[in-house]
Amino acid sequence: MGDQKPRIIVEKNPSQARLDELKFKSWPKWGCSPGKYHLKYEAEEICYIVRGKVKVYPKPPSSASSSSSDAEVEWCVEFGAGDIVTFPKGLSCTWDVSLSVDKHYIFLSS
Protein backbone atom coordinates (compact mmCIF):
# COMPACT_ATOMS: atom_id res chain seq x y z
CA MET A 1 0.00 0.00 0.00
CA GLY A 2 2.98 2.35 0.22
CA ASP A 3 3.88 4.48 3.20
CA GLN A 4 0.61 5.39 4.83
CA LYS A 5 0.65 8.35 7.17
CA PRO A 6 -1.37 7.83 10.34
CA ARG A 7 -4.47 10.00 10.20
CA ILE A 8 -5.01 12.52 12.96
CA ILE A 9 -8.51 13.95 12.57
CA VAL A 10 -9.24 17.44 13.90
CA GLU A 11 -12.83 18.66 14.12
CA LYS A 12 -12.83 22.45 14.39
CA ASN A 13 -15.85 24.18 15.94
CA PRO A 14 -17.90 21.02 16.52
CA SER A 15 -21.65 21.51 16.83
CA GLN A 16 -23.38 21.35 20.19
CA ALA A 17 -25.15 18.20 18.95
CA ARG A 18 -21.77 16.55 18.30
CA LEU A 19 -20.53 17.54 21.77
CA ASP A 20 -23.71 16.21 23.38
CA GLU A 21 -23.33 12.95 21.44
CA LEU A 22 -19.79 12.46 22.79
CA LYS A 23 -20.77 13.16 26.43
CA PHE A 24 -17.13 14.22 26.89
CA LYS A 25 -17.74 15.77 30.32
CA SER A 26 -17.94 12.26 31.78
CA TRP A 27 -14.50 11.35 30.34
CA PRO A 28 -11.26 11.49 32.37
CA LYS A 29 -9.29 14.74 32.28
CA TRP A 30 -5.61 15.24 31.47
CA GLY A 31 -3.50 18.36 31.39
CA CYS A 32 0.06 19.48 30.77
CA SER A 33 2.11 22.65 30.80
CA PRO A 34 4.01 24.04 27.80
CA GLY A 35 6.82 21.81 26.57
CA LYS A 36 7.52 18.80 24.35
CA TYR A 37 6.07 15.38 25.08
CA HIS A 38 6.68 12.09 23.26
CA LEU A 39 3.53 9.98 23.13
CA LYS A 40 2.59 6.60 21.70
CA TYR A 41 -1.05 5.63 21.28
CA GLU A 42 -1.71 1.97 22.16
CA ALA A 43 -5.40 2.50 21.35
CA GLU A 44 -7.45 4.97 19.33
CA GLU A 45 -8.16 8.10 21.38
CA ILE A 46 -10.74 10.83 21.00
CA CYS A 47 -10.21 13.98 23.02
CA TYR A 48 -11.90 17.33 23.49
CA ILE A 49 -9.49 20.21 24.06
CA VAL A 50 -10.85 22.44 26.83
CA ARG A 51 -7.95 24.89 26.65
CA GLY A 52 -4.48 25.16 25.20
CA LYS A 53 -2.66 25.11 21.90
CA VAL A 54 -0.69 22.20 20.44
CA LYS A 55 1.31 21.19 17.38
CA VAL A 56 1.64 17.42 16.99
CA TYR A 57 4.50 16.03 14.90
CA PRO A 58 3.77 12.40 13.93
CA LYS A 59 6.78 10.12 13.54
CA PRO A 60 6.82 8.70 10.02
CA PRO A 61 6.58 4.91 9.84
CA SER A 62 10.14 3.56 9.86
CA SER A 63 11.25 2.82 6.30
CA ALA A 64 14.43 2.40 4.28
CA SER A 65 14.28 6.03 3.15
CA SER A 66 14.82 7.35 6.69
CA SER A 67 18.43 8.20 5.82
CA SER A 68 17.39 10.95 3.38
CA SER A 69 16.26 13.45 6.00
CA ASP A 70 16.24 16.30 3.45
CA ALA A 71 13.44 14.65 1.50
CA GLU A 72 11.32 14.05 4.60
CA VAL A 73 9.37 17.25 5.16
CA GLU A 74 8.29 17.35 8.77
CA TRP A 75 4.52 17.78 8.87
CA CYS A 76 2.42 18.64 11.83
CA VAL A 77 -1.18 18.93 12.93
CA GLU A 78 -2.29 21.98 14.92
CA PHE A 79 -5.27 22.19 17.24
CA GLY A 80 -6.46 24.03 20.32
CA ALA A 81 -9.31 24.94 22.63
CA GLY A 82 -12.72 23.77 21.42
CA ASP A 83 -11.41 21.14 18.99
CA ILE A 84 -12.20 17.43 18.97
CA VAL A 85 -9.14 15.39 17.97
CA THR A 86 -8.94 11.68 17.08
CA PHE A 87 -5.57 9.91 17.28
CA PRO A 88 -5.14 6.54 15.54
CA LYS A 89 -3.95 3.42 17.35
CA GLY A 90 -0.21 2.85 16.91
CA LEU A 91 0.67 6.51 16.38
CA SER A 92 3.96 7.77 17.80
CA CYS A 93 4.27 11.53 17.93
CA THR A 94 5.68 14.58 19.68
CA TRP A 95 3.32 17.08 21.28
CA ASP A 96 4.74 20.61 21.12
CA VAL A 97 2.54 22.47 23.62
CA SER A 98 2.67 26.27 23.39
CA LEU A 99 -0.23 27.01 25.77
CA SER A 100 -1.05 24.78 28.77
CA VAL A 101 -3.50 22.03 27.78
CA ASP A 102 -6.54 20.64 29.54
CA LYS A 103 -8.47 17.94 27.74
CA HIS A 104 -11.11 15.28 28.25
CA TYR A 105 -10.22 11.97 26.58
CA ILE A 106 -11.45 8.47 25.97
CA PHE A 107 -9.78 5.37 24.51
CA LEU A 108 -11.80 3.31 22.04
CA SER A 109 -11.43 -0.45 22.17
CA SER A 110 -11.55 -2.03 18.75
TrEMBL record:
InterPro entries: UGlyAH_Cupin_dom
Residues of the (S)-ureidoglycine aminohydrolase cupin domain: 20-105
Pfam family, one: Cupin_3
Protein's recorded name: RmlC-like cupin domain superfamily
Origin species: Arabidopsis thaliana x Arabidopsis arenosa
